[in-house]
Amino acid sequence: MTLWMGAAGAALFVLVFLVDGGSRPDYSPVRHPVSALALGRRGWIQTANFIVAGTAITVASLELVVAGPGVLIGVVLTVFGLSLVASGVFPMDPMLGYPPGAPTGIPEQHSTAHRRHDLAGAVVFLSLPVAAAAGAFTLPGMAWRVVSGGVALALFIGFGWFGRAWEQTSPRLGLIQRAVIVTGWGWLAALFTWLALRSG
């Protein structure tokens, strides 16, 4: 049951930010990061998305620690899930013109909540490729090992690409981040689903 929770949490996280971001006035999914959805009048939706998805993934990951297929991948995904929760507890500062009236660029000074959000986000985007890399060595079956290795490589490259886009305030910042998230969270949802089916 908990593995299904993890699969649902990962899949619904993506679905919620895609629908909310695509329907929100003044918000650009191409330009703005997913975390910016936690700002403004509808910000509670993305805040809840972070916390609910992170909690579901954490619970499922703890089952991996206890029941396998590997303690390492379970521990890393537990850290990932908890960091996702923290990303919801500590929102980013308004910037990049969102919400309306926010600075058009990225301010040099940040609030304590934003700095904590940045730290949690860094752990999120680093722990997931580490988990995929661990899966390349510990998951049963050659297919899952090959896929996990490929996903790990793609996520490491994507995280670096997103970091450069952030530094350059790229107009495609949000699009780049979404490509990374869909890849990583898609792998995670598929993994939990496969493990749930395998456990019968």
Automatic annotation (TrEMBL):
The chain crosses the membrane at residues 45-64, 71-90, 119-139, 146-163, 175-197. Keywords: Membrane, Transmembrane, Transmembrane helix. InterPro entries: DUF998. This is DUF998 domain-containing protein.
